Amino acid sequence: MLGLRGLRRPPAGILLLLPFLPLLLPAAPAPHCAPYKPVIVVHGLFDSSYSFRHLLEYINETHPGTVVTVLDLFDGRESLRPLWEQVQGFGEAVAPIMAKAPQGVHLICYSQGGLVCRALLSVMDEHNVDSFISLSSPQMGQYGDTDYLKWLFPTSMRSNLYRICYSPWGQEFSICNYWHDPHHDDLYLNASSFLALINGERDHPNATAWRKNFLRVGRLVLIGGPDDGVITPWQSSFFGFYDANETVLEMEEQPVYLRDSFGLKTLLARGAIVRCPMAGISHTAWHSNRTLYETCIEPWLS
To answer: Signal sequence span per UniProt (predicted)?
Structure first.
């Protein structure tokens, strides 16, 4: 035992205390593990909850334990129901989820569903939405010939669809609720029972309250891209739209922004608007593209 020669044995009292040292020393701080906020997903036209199985998988992988609710309402052809009817139905489904999440929730709303969600943010007085993620949604309206429109109105082209959409009968179809013909602006403003109202483009008694409600949102995340193939113009996903010459005016050039009619300008001023353009993604692939998820969605699901 040459290596131990000269060492002194600790006093007996110290030896008796050794088993209790862990109790006497201050405990190391526990890592912060705040639970992730619940996520609510609202589908688009002719969709169902099944379309979002990949998105659900991505969220479970990157944010394990997150409570994700993909609302299974107005599926398939039922998604053609008037949007105010859908707002009421989705609102009844969303309210109890919000009530159980005092820390707030996230909304991921795809295509037509993004307009449903924006209306929800306007009409719900006490919503607690942290991030509203608008996934390739025609937020300023739609003006383009798509397969959906050709199936629904086979004898009409975009140039004359206003004759149907701006009639009381046409406003019974969800697509017509956000049909926005830049060549017939007066008809749009007078006939639109949905988009012109939530945009604050037409006076109504709830305009001030709706604007206040919309501004409760913590963050507005806008996602879209030039290869979408359905949203026309694609900049509508970022609140851009055509003028009467079919030149796209960006969000900051739109009258609804300049007048701050429902709160866009205020949100941008406080740094609450995030724009995430992505090229190379078609309309039906936004909710299944992993790169898009990691770049534009996952960072905001705190």
So the answer is: 1-26
Q: Based on the residue annotation, tell me whether 185 is a catalytic residue of this protein.
A: no
Catalytic residue (choose from 43, 184, 283, 287): 283
Q: What is the pLDDT of residues 141-172, one digit of tens each?
A: 999 877 666 666 665 677 889 999 999 999 99
- Does 16 map to a domain? no
Asked if residue 181 is part of any domain, the answer here is no
Model pLDDT for residues 102-115, shown as the tens digit of each residue: 999 999 999 999 99
pTM of the model: 0.86
- The residue from 43, 51, 106, 111 that is catalytic is 111
Give the Cα separation of 163 and 175 in Å (integer).
Answer: 14
Structural domain total, the chain: 1
- Residue 126: which domain range? 39-142+206-300
Q: Is 95 contained in some domain?
A: yes
Q: What is the DSSP string of the chain?
A: -GGGTTPPPPPHHHHHHGGGHHHHSPPPPPPP-PPPPPEEEE--TT--GGGGHHHHHHHHHHSTT--EEE---S-GGGGGS-HHHHHHHHHHHHHHHHHT-TT-EEEEEETHHHHHHHHHHHH-TT--EEEEEEES--TT-B-S--HHHHHHSTT--TTTTHHHHTSTTGGGSHHHHTB--TT-HHHHHHH-SSHHHHTT-S--TTHHHHHHHHTT-SEEEEEE-TT-SSSSSGGGGGT-EE-TTSPEEPGGGSHHHHTTSSSHHHHHHTT-EEEEE-SS--GGGTTT-HHHIIIIIGGG--
Residue 298: CB atoms within 10 Å: 15
Catalytic residue among 228, 236, 237, 261: 228
